[in-house]
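Students often ask why inverse folding is considered easier than folding. One informal answer: many sequences map to the same fold, so there is more than one right answer. In these notes we will look at a single instance of the problem. The structure comes first.
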């Protein structure tokens, strides 16, 4: 990703960019000024916010070598995504990175345009966070395309892909906030950490904190600790790939009031556990063009947020409508021992 620094003055300033969007997503709130890094969405049932997470879709992975197979898997993934939406009936989609696959021969922009069009066509407001495989020659163009897409909630155009999705009731009262972060290829890095603190400070000035969660691609180090410490429940099929994240992000997130993290990146891990008051949850990998279907069936993760209690529940959802969540003592380790 381009590493454009945002000045604090810019950060705190009110931008009109959001008001110039070509179209509003269904339910998207309009008419009030927000910082450029904030997007607001009206939720019809404020007692149960339904968030469906797709992750690691990997459109076009292998298209150079196996174009027919890639197309077949891509169309199957799209069919799955529609079925998952039919079953989940979500208020909002979170697409947490590796939506398309790399930038071979400069084709990243072509892949991205296709991917954005498909997500926009699903008929549900959708937010996007960047993954390490979402590669382009021109990231400014990518931010713009994401911000102008159909049904988009993307608000990271002026803040390197970091933004806050605010979920509100019919009266405009805030219910919950989703901190959407760009972990680039390195994990939650200094600028993303800075964004968490700065955005939280601005939001805190408005009044009482509401429920806050974070969504991003690459897990933080404590995903490893929560498994190794015997706290997490679920399935682990590969070591946690936190890249260069060193564990310093979690205390920053906790101080900002973030109580849960939703990530992707490791396709065959699906577990959650609480450490230092933060629930670390893996998404369920979605794309058949990504590795891992032999170990963990492709699907999505459905979160139900109860903002009054600041509580959330999750299930992993499969395209046939069945769901899974680990039992009280369930800890399955399928990693190969060398
Ligand atoms: Fe991936
Ligand atoms: Fe990844």
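Output (designed amino acids):
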């Amino acid at each position: 990703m381009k590493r454009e620094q945002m000045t604090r003055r810019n950060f705190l300033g009110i931008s009109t960019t959001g008001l110039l969007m070509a179209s509003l997503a269904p339910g998207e709130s309009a008419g009030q000024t927000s910082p450029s890094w904030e997007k607001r969405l009206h939720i019809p049932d404020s007692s149960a916010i339904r968030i469906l997470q797709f992750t690691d879709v990997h459109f076009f992975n292998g298209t150079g070598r196996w174009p027919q197979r890639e197309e077949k898997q891509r169309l199957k993934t799209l069919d799955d995504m529609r079925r998952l939406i039919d079953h989940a009936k979500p208020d909002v989609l979170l697409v947490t990175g590796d939506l398309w696959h790399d930038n071979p021969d400069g084709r990243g922009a072509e892949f991205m345009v296709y991917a954005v069009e498909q997500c926009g066509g699903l008929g549900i407001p959708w937010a996007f966070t960047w993954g390490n495989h979402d590669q382009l020659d021109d990231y400014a163009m990518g931010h713009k395309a994401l911000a102008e897409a159909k049904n988009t909630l993307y608000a990271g155009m002026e803040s390197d892909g970091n933004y806050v999705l605010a979920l509100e009731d019919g009266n405009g009262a805030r219910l919950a906030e989703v901190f959407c972060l760009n972990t680039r290829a390195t994990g939650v890095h200094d600028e993303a950490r800075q964004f968490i603190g700065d955005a939280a400070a601005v939001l805190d000035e408005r009044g009482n904190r509401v429920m806050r969660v974070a969504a991003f691609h690459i897990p933080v180090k404590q995903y490893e600790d929560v498994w190794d410490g015997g706290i997490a429940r679920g399935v682990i099929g590969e070591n946690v790939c936190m890249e260069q994240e060193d564990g310093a992000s979690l205390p920053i997130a906790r101080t900002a009031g973030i109580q849960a993290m939703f990530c992707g990146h490791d396709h065959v891990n699906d577990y959650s556990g609480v450490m230092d008051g933060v629930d670390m949850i893996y998404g369920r990998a979605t794309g058949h063009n990504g590795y891992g279907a032999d170990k963990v069936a492709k699907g999505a993760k459905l979160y139900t947020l109860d903002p009054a209690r600041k509580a959330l529940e999750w299930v992993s959802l499969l395209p046939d409508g069945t769901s899974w969540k680990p039992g009280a003592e369930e800890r399955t380790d399928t990693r190969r021992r060398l």
